[in-house]
């Protein structure tokens, strides 16, 4: 048998929960910031190294293949060794990746940076959710998941401003050195507050068969969760990797304005996450909330693909898409929590969230081909269609969770 128990009985002081949520949120923001280490410099890399959209897409595929394989494995390590050591190692890897990025001289170097950054990204979801589920009181988990998602979006929103401003003042290589310094500061802060990040490990008894650790993989609901993350993330990858280029190609938007639109998308997503936290804390039908939010977002994204709204209108609607996706974020995390067997938090979150990495890995290759052919509107239509498929997966998760938890 394996078992874990909570460190803290209720009631837990609000200050204690808030501190833990804030520290985990900072770590999560840093991982989302790393998602954009390379995509934001795609126009620079195309000009400096003569790369195609497909080659740039392969960089992100490399990042997320490494991240996905590492994330599925990291969940087992988190359950055995605790979350904190892996968190510190991951931040150290980000420092190394940013330092390497400042010195690249060609495509091979960029592939190395992508692999390093993907390895650093691999641990964050099993680490974050293990800490939150063990260290935050139950009544505040919905708000914790909201803050977790919100800080992730803020990390995405900060990256374009960070790189655009430093690159314009100095150079893109200096921007990567500044990012490395930022990760050093974050790592130092978390080390100073390390007592807030400790977790209990799963105790394995001698009579427990090895197959027990993999028993959760036999649950269909786990794979429906995996499918949901893979499909919904394929759409997000289109926005992150290609929205700047699509806005420039379809509407002649400047690089600065297109980059600010991506930032607006992320900020609207953060606001949506905040609102969605209250919804998640007050409803048991997490899958329905997710399905409605993603359906609305898919419609808005398809409207952007029509080009009917012109430059300004498309930028506004695209930002609104981020709000709709954000609304469903906390309910998505509650949906996964309900599907997770007791004592397998790290393993389940590691496996399920590796679907996110698979989606990020597949999407740039698939839609990079669309972009190379000049199918800019079709790229947005395709992303909307995939997001609608994720709605089917969310409903499937809800149905199977209800069956598993229904009294006999």
Overall description:
This protein has 408 residues and is an all-alpha fold. The chain has one domain (14-197, 206-399): MFS general substrate transporter like domains (Growth Hormone, Chain: A). The chain contains 14 helices and no strands. The longest helix has 32 residues, at 220-251.
Entry summary:
This protein is mainly alpha-helical and 408 residues long. 79% of the residues lie in helices and 0% in strands. The chain has one domain: MFS general substrate transporter like domains (Growth Hormone, Chain: A, Up-down Bundle).
Specify the number of helices: 14
How far the N terminus sits from the C terminus, by CA atoms, comes to 24 Å
Provide the CATH topology: Growth Hormone, Chain: A
Oligomeric state, counting identical vs distinct chains: single chain
Uncertain spans, ≥5 residues at pLDDT below 50?
1-10
**Helix-strand topology string:** HHHHHHHHHHHHHH
- Number of folding domains? 1
Round the mean pLDDT to the nearest integer and report it.
Answer: 83
The fraction of residues in strands falls at under 5%
Q: What best-fitting shape do the alpha-carbon axes yield? A: globular
CATH superfamily: MFS general substrate transporter like domains
The CATH architecture is Up-down Bundle
Structural class: mainly alpha
* Computed CA radius of gyration, to the nearest angstrom: 20 Å
